[in-house]
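Q: Could you fold this chain for me?
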Amino acid sequence: MIIGWILLLVLAVAAVAGRRLRRYPGGLRFAFGQEHAAARHDLDTARDALRELERAAVKELSGARAAALTADAAHRHRVRKAEERVVYLHRPDRGGFLDELGNLCLYQHVLAVRTEEWSGDLPLAGITVRSDHTLTAAHIYVTDPAGRRHLVTYHLEHFGEEYVRKFIVDVHNAMDIARAFQRDLPTLIDEAEAELDRARNDTTGQSEAGRRLDEITARQGGDPRIPRARHELDAAQARWQALTGRRPH
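A: Sure. Below is the predicted structure, expressed as C-alpha cells.
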C-alpha cells in the first residue's frame, strides 16, 4: 500500500516536472533555478498578456455571433408561427380534442359521428343537437347542415345519465364557440395575414445584431493590441532562446 502511494507521488511529481520543462525548455536549471526566475517571469508576462487579449476578443466575438444567430432564430420562429396561424385559419380541420361519448367525439370545430348508417365529421357551426331520456336510455339527435338527422342511443346501464347530459352541454357550448369563430373568421384571417406580413418584414433584430457583429469584427481586425502582444511574446521567446538555446512555445 505504501509503495503504491509512493509510486503515485513519484508519477505526480514527474508529470509536474515534465509540464514545467515543456513550458520552460532548456534543462532543469532554467525551468527551476532561482537565478532564471526573472527570465521565466518575462516569458510568462508576454504569454499571459496575449492570452488575455485573445480570450477577451474570442468572448466578445462569440457573443456577437450568438446574438446574431439568436435574432435570426427568433425571426424565423415568429414567421413560422404566423404562417401556421394563417394555414390553420384557412383550414381549421377538426381542431383540438374536447370530449368523447361512445360514438360521438367532440373537437373544437366538428362533432365526429359514428352510427350504423353513417360516419363522418359534422361542423359544429352548422348542426343542431337535442336529446331526450327514458328510464333506460338516452337518445341524442344530431341534424347536419343538409338537414339529415342522426340518432345515437346510449343505454344508461353503460353510460350514466349525468355524464350524457354533461356531454350535451359541452357540445352546445362548443357549438356557440364554433359559430362565433366562423362569424369572426374573415377578420381573424385578415389579422393573421397582416401579422405574417409584419413578421416577414420586421428584421430589426437581425439587422441590429448583424451591425453589431460587423462592428466588432471590423474593430478587432484593426485592433493593434493582439499583433503587438504577439510581437512581444515572439521577442520574449527569442530572449529565452538566446539564454537557453531552446525556443519555447
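A (continued): Residues 37-90 form the longest helix (54 residues).
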